[in-house]
Amino acid sequence: MSGYVLCMSACVVCRKTFSFNPHRVPSTSAFTGKREPVCRGCMDEINQRRAERGLPEHFIYPDAYEALPESEL
């Protein structure tokens, strides 16, 4: 039998706790110097601001905020 895994952490931008796929979640080292996860709401806001300035949006994997199959750990 196989299961699924979700990681939980506070978003490095807004500090709200959220769950994510640890292999796919967007992250940044801009705030702490080490890679920290960014929630979907913050990524949507960041991408909207980038689009308004004519910059390319950051890619978000479709499964970035979904469970990871246990076999992929």
What's the quick description here?
With 73 residues, the chain is α+β, with helices and mostly antiparallel strands. The protein is 18% helix and 22% strand. The protein has one helix at residues 40-52, and strands at residues 4-5, 7-10, 17-20, 27-28, 36-37, 68-69.
Describe the fold and architecture.
It is a single chain. The chain is an alpha+beta fold. It has one domain (4-72). Helix content is 18%, strand content 22%. It has 1 helix and 6 strands; from the N terminus they run βββββαβ. It has one helix at residues 40-52, and strands spanning 4-5, 7-10, 17-20, 27-28, 36-37, 68-69. The protein has a two-stranded antiparallel ribbon. Strands 2-3 form a two-stranded antiparallel ribbon. Strands 4-5 form a two-stranded antiparallel ribbon. A hairpin with a 7-residue loop joins strand 4 (27-28) and strand 5 (36-37). The radius of gyration is 13 Å and the shape is globular. The relative contact order is 0.28. The mean pLDDT is 94.
